[in-house]
Design goal:
Metallo-beta-lactamase, Chain A; Arc Repressor Mutant, subunit A
């Protein structure tokens, strides 16, 4: 994820205020902001508590008061302890009734199994995301292992030392998401979910994850954007070994275009950063950012054919560790694939088994 703009260009109703550990900040009636630590450069995730009521399964005519949680944090000791503080200090002696997960990435999915078991709560998420989480827990993920190593090598990242570390990351996902709940309720694009007194419309998004779900309460001017719309960093958009020819960047841009009816007055509740207003401004910044990166790559591919690994300095001006490089490679390939699908570059496999891209001079007619 990259910085794409000066954060002050947006409106931050809470300024620099952040929720204290184990505490919550109310951002709308019945909507509370939690912040949990992450052990990465991106050092936090925002989670959301929504006051809710659902039928009691033992007495369906009776309603149970409680909470819906949106996203969970990773499964580690620190996050469990933070949640335990929330149980004691925030939940007002009410249970968690539902765990709603926007997408399968570890910081969103990690503790879903624990929360669901602890509270006998229901898991709600999109089917594609749920099944992807199951696969990733079994080791069939895009975060490490032999197939991921071979995919990166085919795009020019061939350092033996780095490739050994990529292979060893086969357990990267399951280390933070050890299990997935056995059952779930399906979320689909356009579906309306009633949480408490609000109706939230599901908006699916592609490119960042298989089928990310954001939640929009139009009447209340609230959007839980997950990772699809972040205030001060760009959402990671990557191509992975399981779908090596995908046009993830175009899918992501198309998903943003589907959010262009959301007004700038809407309060956006993102997974990283601070709640903000200015959705259309932020969407325009994303679009400009990716257009600039595509232009930069197109210029860099003029002349000698280049591979994704050689082009990392074009997109990323800072030093990258191995963890960051795995995401940077996925993002570089996503941008190159977008140019390739648009007919603006040619892709060829050279004698060393590495894909190289070269400007074709003219876009494809179709």
């Amino acid at each position: 994820m990259n910085a794409t703009s000066t954060p002050s260009a947006l409106d931050y109703p809470w300024g620099t205020e952040l929720p204290a550990p184990g505490r919550a900040t109310q951002v709308a009636e019945g909507v509370y902001w939690l912040r949990m630590a992450l052990p990465f450069a991106l050092d936090h995730i925002n989670l959301w508590l929504l006051r809710d009521q659902m039928p009691d399964p033992r007495e369906p005519s009776q309603m149970r008061e409680g909470w819906t949680v949106v996203d969970c944090g990773i499964d580690n000791v620190a996050t469990r302890e933070a949640w335990s503080q929330v149980f004691e200090q925030v939940l007002q002696d009410l249970p968690i009734l539902r765990v709603l997960v926007t997408h399968m990435h570890p910081d969103h999915m990690g503790l879903a199994h624990w929360l669901c078991e602890h509270w006998q709560a229901q898991l709600w998420m999109n089917t594609t995301e749920y099944q992807s989480a199951l696969l990733a827990c079994s080791g069939a993920s895009n975060f490490g292992g032999d197939k991921t190593q071979a995919f990166f090598a085919a795009h020019g990242w061939t350092s033996p030392e780095d490739m050994a570390q990529v292979r060893e990351r086969v357990g990267y996902y399951s280390g933070m998401v050890p299990r997935v709940p056995d059952a779930y309720h399906r979320l689909m694009d356009g579906q309306t979910v009633r949480i408490g007194q609000r109706q939230w419309r599901c908006i699916s998004g592609h490119g960042h994850s298989p089928e990310h779900i954001a939640l929009y309460a139009q009447e209340e001017d609230l959007l839980i954007s997950g990772d699809m719309l972040l205030p001060s960093i760009s959402t990671n958009v990557s191509v992975y070994s399981q779908e090596p020819d995908s046009n993830a960047l175009q899918w992501f841009l198309d998903s943003l275009a589907r959010m262009q009816s959301i007004p700038d007055s809407c309060l956006v509740l993102p997974s990283h950063g601070r709640p903000f207003k200015g959705a259309q401004l932020r969407i325009a910044q994303y679009q400009d950012h990716h257009a600039e990166r595509l232009d930069d790559l197109l210029q860099a591919c003029t002349g000698t054919p280049r591979c994704a690994h050689e082009l990392l300095p074009v997109l990323f001006k800072r030093a990258l560790n191995l963890h960051q490089t795995t995401f940077a490679m996925g993002e570089a390939i996503a941008h190159l694939n977008a140019l390739w699908h648009a007919g603006q570059v040619r892709r060829q496999l050279d004698a060393d088994g590495i894909y190289r891209f070269q400007s074709s001079g003219t876009p494809r007619a179709d």
